[in-house]
Amino acid sequence: MITGIVNADFEPIISLSVQGADGQIYTQNAIVDTGFNGWLSLPPDLIAQLNLRWKRRGRAILGDGSECVFNVYEATVVWDGDLLTIPVDEADSDPLIGMSLMEGYQLTVQVFEEGLVELSKVSTV
Predict the structure, then answer these.
(1) How many domains does the chain have?
(2) pTM of the predicted model as reported, rounded to 2 decimal places
(3) How far is the C-alpha of 88 from the C-alpha of 19, rounded, in Å?
(4) pLDDT tens profile 20-55
(5) Of the chain's two ends, which shows fewer C-beta atoms within 10 Å, N or C?
């Protein structure tokens, strides 16, 4: 199970560990974003600090209908105790956890300041 907390802006926050190119694990808070269908987004300065490997260009339609082109990198994250290699979208925003990373999990959020955020793996048996 992955747990976090709702901040003063009512954003569900979890701690995420990302492995840099040097093999070190860096821990970063990230917002759980159910409106983002990607895996993970990180700001350019953090991508540079981690020295992530560039993979390709990506394209997305934003909530306002505009189109955005961005760089996509590859990173290894610690997710619920497992190492996963995932695509990372570069975005000028706080780090975001997307729906693709949460696939197969149930998200529970207590929507009040300091409320509990829980991601628990759903058994498909």
Answers:
(1) 1
(2) 0.88
(3) 12
(4) 989 999 999 999 999 999 999 999 999 999 999 999
(5) C
